[in-house]
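[Automated response] Your request has been received and processed.

Submitted sequence:
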Amino acid sequence: MLYVSAMLLVLATATGGWSTLDASDLGLLAVSGLVGILVGDLALFTAMARIGPRRTSVLFTCNAPLAAVGGVLLFDESFAPWALVGAVLTVAGITLAVNFGSRSGTHTDVFERVEGSLLVGATWAGIGALGQALGALAVKPILDGGADTLAVAAARVVMATIALWVFARPGDRLARPARRGALLPLDHLRLAGSGFVAMVVGMSLLLWSLGHGDTGVATILSATTPVILLPLLWVRMRQVPTVGAWAGAALTVVGTALLL
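Generated structure:
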């Protein structure tokens, strides 16, 4: 989070985006950062450490329909008939693809191993999904008002980073599974690279899409991440995805086409 904060602060300052934010925006920015990042990402990473990326992704997919329903109720958004069918097919395809994303016997791999209770890990994933959905809904009015995407992203991240550091000591002992201690130099490089790709680039693009389109469409499209994760896990685990995973990926492609 320190790496991401530094990168976004530099980018927002270089582009002059701070002038697009008002003092009245701080409340919603704080809600979005604290609920969407502090609660949402912390719960997501905790779930991933406990039950692996595949299981976490299945449960985390529900953040898309939650945000879509919120967009309909709060911002009078709507889906055309074919787009609604596409949204349902996309979410179903994601769930199917990830649920059948690995073959039996792979539970010993580091990406499939369950650390501790499966129920506890699933609960963390559900909390993460709800947090991310609420975080997206909270920030949409600010983006709709013309606020700069990078400035919004930077403000959210800085607020969440301060909060994360406040809770780091007591919270880490409760949340993390048993593992090695101090981070290695290579770990810092991985964290910086992951932060840049996932949050500086990925989160900023998602915020931009929230400000230029419907919440439901943006969040459902962003939820296709688990399907994109399938071939990456294929390369890592050296196992071809199952027929069910292929079918789910194909369904996601069809649903996305209808959604757009």
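Summary generated for your ticket: The chain has a mean pLDDT of 84. The chain is about 75% helix and 0% strand.
If you did not submit this request, please reply to this message.
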